[in-house]
Amino acid sequence: MAWTRDRMCARAAKELRDGFYVNLGIGMPTLVANFVPADVHVNLQSENGMLGMGPFPTENEVDADLINAGKQTVSELPESVYFDSAESFAMIRGGHIDLSILGALQVAQNGDLANWMIPGKMVKGMGGAMDLVAGVKRVVVLMDHNAKDGAAKLLKQCTLPLTGQAVVNLVITDLGVFEISGGVMRLAETADGVTADEIRARTEAEFTA
Amino acid sequence: MNKTYADAAAALDGLLHDGMTILAGGFGLCGIPENLILALRESGVGGLTVVSNNCGIDDFGLGLLLQTRQIKKMISSYVGENKLFEKQYLDGELELEFNPQGTLAERIRAGGAGIAAFYTRTGVGTAVAEGKETRDFDGHTHVMETGLRGDLAIVKAWMGDADGNLIYRKTARNFNPPMATAGRTTVAEVEQLVEVGQLDPDRIHTPGVFVNRVFQGATFERRIERRTVRD
Predict the structure, then answer these.
(1) Best residue in A48, A62, A105, A137 for a mutation probing chain B (most B CBs within 10 Å)
(2) Active-site residue, A198 included
């Protein structure tokens, strides 16, 4: 059985350590905040200018001046701090953020990441992703193992424009967990009942098991 | 010298010309100078290069200036919220320069601080670094990025005083403080304009030296892009 999105997020939450400053990307990575273990306290950084980001607000707390990087309304915590965009990326680029969890279109076996554009089709932009992968101490990708059309997303080499070169440390998909170290990808865990051979059949990248 | 103006149109008087570069604060629709954007639309100034993290949405913020085709080029990090933007870009009507968000913020900070260029690891080995000088520091390749200034910076603050000292509120701060430093002329719209001495000097985010003109906005819609609540 492949992991559900909840199981993927719960697995990603295991990468969090008490006291970490963490940046969660838009989409599924945002949901990892719902799975933080009770004995772990992390401080969430939002690159639009907030540390100590709280959960979505109640109806009464909604404030147009208080949003996350995905432009969603959020709430304040006792430890919250606000700052401008230049200082926010000083934290990110300067190596002061412990962990970034983000989505991907493609990841190569050496840790190359592509997640910001599809030429001729999707024009959205990289936002803060290039800065995050260049500066954050540890980069975890959380993504579906295959694209909607079944195409492999773990590749020998990315075919889409890169977000960063050799920047990914760990990939969590619905089929398993892959560690990338020294330019080599290793299958570290498999989802319940999924075999390495099944994963190989749905993966272009070469990995050791 | 008086820095206060009656409204957005008065605050922009004499500052606009076709083909100019405008830095606009805000992140998504949060903390955008919405009164100044409306006044830019009314002015009809065209051929603009606009530097802003995003480009509003189809019917609010900088998206309004796309509707009227006043923008020739955008320098942004993310434009995914704006269908009109995507269409004008794919149709070749709009130039677009993507900058990584942190590089964009630092280019503006550097521009305002008199730093001509800097080296960063962001974007090395990607399309962003193509054609740019690279140099190794501490065993890592860095790409050179240049400081960025504008003919005009338009920013939005929560409170301001008659000297142009500004205080922002929560995540509406975002790109506003760096942009306020990098305009050859900087115009600030504020929700509350007060007399000099009424703001705590220890709480001011943008010192008035960076601000040339300030006014209290007529209306603030403060539109929310993605209203998300918990039960």
Answers:
(1) A48
(2) no
Give the minimum alpha-carbon distance from A148 to chain B in angstroms, rounded to a whole number: 20
CA distance A46 to chain B (A): 9
Chain A residues touching residue B119 (CB < 8 angstroms):
none
How far apart, in whole angstroms, are the C-alpha atoms of residue B108 and residue B209? Answer: 17
Cβ within 8 Å of residue A158, ≥6 positions away: A106, A107, A108, A112, A113, A114
């960076």: which residue's tokens? B210
Q: What is the pTM of this model?
A: 0.97
CB contact under 8 A, A63 and B170: yes
Here the tokens at position B219 are 């209306």
Three-state DSSP at B206 gives strand
Q: Which residues pair with B183 in a beta bridge?
A: B150
**ipTM of the predicted assembly exceeds 0.90:** yes
Please give the structure tokens belonging to residue A15.
């990468």
Buried residues in A74-108 as b, exposed as e (16+ CB within 10 A): bbbeeebebbbbbbbbbbbbeeebbbbbbbbbbbb
d(CA A2, CA B230): 29
Catalytic residue of the set A15, A47, A61, A79: A47
Q: How does pLDDT run along chain A (209 residues), one tens digit per residue?
A: 899 999 999 999 999 999 999 999 998 999 999 999 999 999 999 999 999 999 999 999 999 999 999 999 999 999 999 999 999 999 999 999 999 999 999 999 999 999 999 988 777 899 999 999 999 999 999 999 999 999 999 999 999 999 999 999 999 999 999 999 999 999 999 999 999 999 999 999 999 98
Contact B12, B162 (CB under 8 A): no
Please say whether the dihedral angle defined by the alpha carbons of residues A192, A197, A199 and A202, taken in this order, is positive or negative.
Answer: negative
* Residue A60 and residue A78 in contact, taking contact as beta carbons nearer than 8 Å: no
pLDDT of residue B81: 78
Contacts of B120 in chain A (CB under 8 A): 93, 134
Instruction: With CB atoms and an 8 Å threshold, state whether B77 touches A128.
Output: yes
CA B73, CA B93: separation in Å to the nearest integer?
A: 9
Contact A130 B226 (CB under 8 A): no
Does the beta-carbon distance from B226 to A63 stay under 8 Å? no
